Amino acid sequence: MSATFSAQDPRALAEAPPMLSLRGVTKSFGAVEVLRDVDLDVRYGRVTALVGDNGAGKSTVIKAIAGIYTFDGGDYRFEGEPVNVTNPKQANAMGIEVVYQDLALCDNLDIVDNLFLGREITSNGLLDDETMEKRARETLASLSVRTVSSVRQKVASLSGGQRQTVAIARSVLWNSKLVILDEPTAALGVAQTEQVLKLVRQLADNGLAVILISHNMNDVLAVADDIAVLYLGRLATQIDAKSVSHAEIVQLITSGRLDVDSARATTTISTGERSGSESTDQGAI
Amino acid sequence: MSTVTGRDLPGLADAPDKRATTALSDYLAKVRGGDVGALPAVLGLIVLALVFTGLRSDTFPTTFNFANLINQGAGVIVIAMGLVFVLLLGEIDLSAGFTAGTAGAVLGVAVTNHGMPWWIGVIVCLASGALIGLVIGLLVARLGIPSFVVTLALFLALQGVLLQIIGEGGQISISNPTLLAVMNSNLALWQGWVLYVLVVVGFGAVSYRRMAKRRAKGLHAERFSVWGFKFCTLVVLLGIVTFLLSRERSVNVEATSIMGVPMVVPVLILLLVGLTILLNRTAFGRHVYAVGGNAEAARRAGINVANIRLICFIICSTMAAVAGILIGSRDNGVTPNTGGNQTLLYAVGAAVIGGTSLFGGKGRPVDAIVGGLVVAIIANGMALLNQPAGVVYVVTGLVLLVAASVDALSRRRAAATGRF
Ligand SMILES: Nc1ncnc2c1ncn2[C@@H]1O[C@H](COP(=O)(O)OP(=O)(O)OP(=O)(O)O)[C@@H](O)[C@H]1O
Ligand SMILES: [Mg+2]
After folding, report:
1. pTM score over 0.90
2. ipTM of this model?
């Protein structure tokens, strides 16, 4: 998270060509068509929230962006160049970092080992554990992590929030350009949620592009600049976060359309808001 | 937050220097939390040694028997060292025993039947082991067949190969003096003491440098007194061992004199150090643990999981080939039964008794040595008690079950307390 990006005019950032853009991408698992014709633009210095109901295809989109899967068809451009990302290492090399919904940590390794997994620092072919530990401590300190008693603790012994912190710290250890977070606050308490959201905002303010997946509309409205709504594997819309209300996003998520009248009608109801995990009850659609 | 500050936060700062008593209570907490390491095996070693000493005080606690024990255990220990790599992945290699036999037969054919120099024989032998590992690895890592099935098939197939090479009831004798020396000769007394000094100073220097380096970087480091205690323990223990092995242990001193550290000991030390560095100090080793702990996480971290699997199976089979050389040297030849019978079970038992988990993600090469010595003591002591083979098998089987139970229980305990 070194300050690679100087403070830039937010308007210039918003109008600059997107750092990542998807056009008409598709993805199927066997006969199941999970993504149909999805368009997405992600810009430097902005948090792009990716929302949608359970099974809408959010995780699939980001896994394909990060090279875990590959898109079956469509156009994937990174910094204006068409790219074909086929493995996670390639995505890492391009500057893409992902914090997964199902935390990809190894329980039998400690915090430092997990932070540097796959990109260990070596000298003369041997692991440089001291340098890695020092950098790990510095990074955690810079994120104001106070809850971890030792960076040599096995990850198995950490709480959900601590594990999430480790996962996020992992993405900022490197000079990344795009950080993707899949429901980073789903398992967190109030204080840690706030901490993580602050961190997400900070990443974007430093000039990074951020994709945030969340079911919690309060979180989304708190940090997002753009909101992209997926509905049954299709992109319903991508809009500026300032131009939509809580109720309108909910309607987009549940019906894939924005019917002006009913949106206004639901405004009153939806003040009893959907909080993160409760969104599952919309699964009937 | 854009710049990394070096400041230590209260909760994050490990005390850079812990009191010796804290180190002890930390260790006890670790054990209570299910992270028992080699502790059960070491305790087992002591108890077994005391029991057999009590039962056969005339023959068991002799230096002759002690040296004999090391030679008896060497083959199993080396196979177990290789098995640690596949066990770390949560896989198994049931064919390792017959891989040892087959590679040993290849060595015999090369050196005895074709008159090649011993070192070419060794290369061919190791290559045949690596080839077997490559085949297993490809079938498991690329085709995705469970290793249990692949190696069970190879267990049978290699037995057949061994039989074909040697012939029913046959034997390939090994008479090359260099090869025989590995298991049948001892270091000169001075060489034994040089080895002792090398090991002790090497351990001391490496661990001291590590401690100093950590302290210099302001990281939590072992307290000097704790390091000193460990170092002195090693100096005394290995000193006693070297002293005992340096005494005359021939039953008939007029006929022959037997003394000195067995030649196989430096071989075992070399393998132990090499494999430990590979697992603990290289990125490859770290990736092996990662794949064993969470293969999906490893894959997402950009680790080539299939390659790691492949290499681990190759290492395992190559180590089995090394064991094949040792067993061939000890038995002065190879028969269709070399590496058969209880060899594999003893090797798996050695690794598990030493503290390597059958569930993957946890284990060290040194486990193979500690566990291998436990297995060797049981076999050796029971033989001195003139117990029939049947009883020895039953007892060893029970010990393996106990070790597996300790593994499973400590794992459950670890899951409950959040330690791995
Ligand atoms: N590997 C796979 N094989 C087959 N189907 C899959 C696979 N991964 C996802 N799917 C299906 O694709 C659809 C989209 O899944 P995805 O995980 O992308 O949804 P999501 O939007 O992330 O949902 P959630 O909010 O629950 O995380 C689901 O119907 C899911 O069952
Ligand atoms: Mg998801």
Report:
1. no
2. 0.85
